[in-house]
Amino acid sequence: MTRRAKPVPDPENHGAFLPNGQAAKSGLNKSILDAGWGVFLSVLTAKAEKAGRDLIPVNPANTSRTCPECGHCAKGNRPSQAVFTCQQCGFTGHADVIGAINILRAGTALRETAHAA
Ligand SMILES: [Zn+2]
User: Residue 92 Cα, ligand 1 centroid: separation in angstroms?
Assistant: First the structure.
């Protein structure tokens, strides 16, 4: 469903291609994938409610680049896919664990904000 538009070879100019609507298809693909996440989130919310759990959606941006010790956020904190090394304080850990810590903190903060309001 989110496959790219097929290239259309130009019969008059060998090796060239005619417009195939890929730009429009690209926008449609983004919408389809967005809707996919929306459906996933609503199903997950229902499952969590049924299990008596809270679901707190968290924006994952920079969660695996931010140091849980000092809060320094930089692309350079991730020298590789798995390794996290804070360029400011030297804190090290597995990048997935760092991401999980930061997502848990963000979710907890959102929950406390919601309860305070
Ligand atoms: Zn740090």
Answer: 8
| pLDDT 10s digits, 7-54 | 788 888 888 888 888 877 788 778 777 778 788 889 899 999 999 998
Cβ–Cβ under 8 Å, residues 9 and 18:
yes
Query: How far, in Å, from the CA of 107 to the mean position of ligand 1?
Result: 20
CA distance 48 to 54: 6
Q: Where are the domains of the chain?
A: 1-53, 56-117
Instruction: Please list the alpha-helical segments (H only) found in the chain.
Output: 22-50, 95-116
Q: Are 20 and 6 in contact (CB under 8 A)?
A: yes
